[in-house]
């Protein structure tokens, strides 16, 4: 049985829109930084930052980003290192790399003007999918463009009792049908924001505030007392645990050697500590790159979680006996007391911050 076979009919579209927008007018968010001076560029940056990240976390990052890159031209002209530096701590760094690539595409292919005439053209840019493109168009231009981000999936799944994981094609198709049904041709920016606000502030993943919801009497999940059943989670797989050694090679001035990671892959383009599979490999690297260095302490391992695996990191220190070793291309002596503007992987930043307290 497909989701559309078992689901009740959608609510009357006009009824849904009226109730939702009335709720939004009284309780919705309208003072967020990216809601002021709305342009396709500002809305785009905010939408990318908000992927997988809470609004409260994004606000400060967005404001710093706008202060440094007020328009798409300045972002396109920047070095990736600076973009990644401003993204440090926000996570999911592929977003920052795609943001930079897309900015250059907009400048080179569209003369600095975002192709907001249709979803297809906008979603062809790096890092922009169908829902993000719809949100940018609706928020920045007021044109009609349905969205289906995580918050909206949760609202629609619960309201209509749509079972199954939204990543399944049949479930996703059903949710897009509902999003299309309800999206109006008027007040499109407010409607889009209202849908996101509903999921973020009322129809939350845990402990939804059902009694404050304008659809409390219409919601299939609430009537059944099964709010947290929807949407169903992705089928779980065992999360593998990987291991790595991170070397903190420290010179007499307290500087730490960093290496830039390859543009693709784990922490792509960010600066990090030299990594090794085992201690023998690490010692061989030291003999080759920093002969005469003194091997230091082996610090407490810790685990950093990614989407598909967990990484156990064991930091080890070594000290140069005198001076600093020469640096090759893609290496940098980093002074924790006078840090350079480099994009750092979160666990590397934590280790460098901890090193500062020891100096």
What does this structure look like?
- The protein is α+β, with helices and mostly antiparallel strands and 359 residues long.
- It has 15 helices and eight strands.
- It folds into two domains: 159 residues, Hypothetical protein, domain 2 (Endonuclease III, domain 1, Orthogonal Bundle); 116 residues, Alpha-Beta Complex (Nucleoside Triphosphate Pyrophosphohydrolase).
- Strands 1, 4, 5, 6 and 7 form a five-stranded mixed beta sheet that branches.
- Helix 2 crosses helix 12, helix 3 crosses helix 4 and helix 10 packs across helix 12.
- The longest helix has 17 residues.
- The protein is elongated.
- The N terminus is likely disordered.
- Adenine glycosylase active on G-A mispairs. MutY also corrects error-prone DNA synthesis past GO lesions which are due to the oxidatively damaged form of guanine: 7,8-dihydro-8-oxoguanine (8-oxo-dGTP).
- It comes from Kushneria aurantia.
